[in-house]
């Protein structure tokens, strides 16, 4: 009853929006990136983005809500908040693309939000011009074999393999979230699948041509090929 009141709703949702949109200057971040996810700032971001993800999951489609307060809240949420929160998620995606630090758990939640948005007609249309760019230029690089993967494989291959089959790790993994996003987007509309698979074929052809020549293969090319194989596997 409390949040169905427009005054209370606007106050709480406005405060949540301001908190989600805040950024921390790089100079105030812990110097060691391994320490950042455990910092108070990124722990608070984790919960804020989790709340926003849960809101859109539960109230993003009014007809799926129970009659009464749930539907009343959903109507206000869809009208006042869902598109604005989507813009915030797109801003975070843009930050990821430019190399800004975003904690792994927040990246995971951003792409979980986007996966939900794909299935909501109004939100999908709102971001229509961005989906293919996000998929190829942001999601795909996260799917590729990373420096962190290489370091773990070199230092502790058993742990690397264990993480690959750990259900809890999957729940919080950015790689799993972007893989699910890729699957959901390509399933939603064939044109996304066609463009994405054309990009993946080009990546694999580049790797194949270099490997066939007998010359040394740039590790970056190998890592992109690994990501392409994962992407193709996700679509099956």
Protein topology:
Layout: H1 6-21, H2 40-59, H3 69-80, H4 82-97, H5 104-118, H6 121-126, H7 131-143, H8 147-155, H9 157-164, H10 167-172, H11 174-188, H12 190-213, H13 219-235
Tags for this model:
mainly alpha; 13 helices; globular
Describe, in plain words, how this protein is organized in 3D:
- The chain has helices at 6-21, 40-59, 69-80, 82-97, 104-118, 121-126, 131-143, 147-155, 157-164, 167-172, 174-188, 190-213, 219-235.
- By secondary structure, it is mainly α.
- The protein contains 13 helices and no strands.
- Helix 2 (40-59) crosses helix 3.
Short description:
The protein is mainly α and 236 residues long. It contains 13 helices and no strands.
Number of strands: 0
- Radius of gyration over alpha carbons? 20 Å
Mean residue pLDDT: 93
What is the molecular shape?
globular
The portion of residues assigned to helices is over 70%
- Discrete helix count: 13
Distance between the termini: 45 Å
State the low-pLDDT regions, or none.
none
The helix-and-strand class reads mainly alpha
Element-level helix/strand string: HHHHHHHHHHHHH
Largest sheet: none
Q: What amount of the residues lies in strands? A: under 5%
């Amino acid at each position: 009853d409390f949040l169905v009141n427009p005054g209370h709703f606007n106050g709480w949702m406005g405060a949540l929006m301001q908190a989600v949109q805040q950024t921390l200057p790089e100079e105030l971040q812990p110097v060691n990136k391994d320490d950042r996810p455990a910092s108070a700032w990124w722990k608070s971001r984790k919960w804020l983005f989790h709340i926003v993800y849960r809101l859109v999951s539960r109230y993003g489609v009014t007809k799926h809500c129970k009659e009464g307060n749930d539907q009343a809240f959903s109507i206000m949420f869809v009208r006042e908040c869902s598109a604005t929160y989507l813009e915030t998620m797109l801003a975070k995606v843009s930050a990821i693309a430019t190399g800004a630090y975003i904690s792994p758990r927040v990246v995971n939640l951003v792409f979980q939000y986007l996966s939900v948005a794909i299935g909501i007609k109004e939100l999908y249309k709102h971001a229509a011009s961005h989906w293919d760019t996000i998929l190829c230029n942001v999601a795909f690089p996260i799917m590729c074999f990373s420096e962190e993967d290489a370091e773990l494989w070199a230092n502790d291959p058993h742990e690397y393999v264990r993480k690959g089959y750990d259900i809890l790790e999957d729940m919080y993994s950015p790689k799993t979230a972007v893989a699910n996003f890729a699957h959901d987007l390509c399933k939603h509309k064939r044109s996304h699948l066609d463009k994405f698979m054309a990009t993946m074929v080009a990546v694999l052809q580049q790797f194949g041509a270099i490997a066939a020549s007998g010359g040394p293969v740039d590790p970056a090319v190998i890592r992109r090929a690994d990501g392409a194989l994962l992407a193709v596997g996700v679509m099956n």
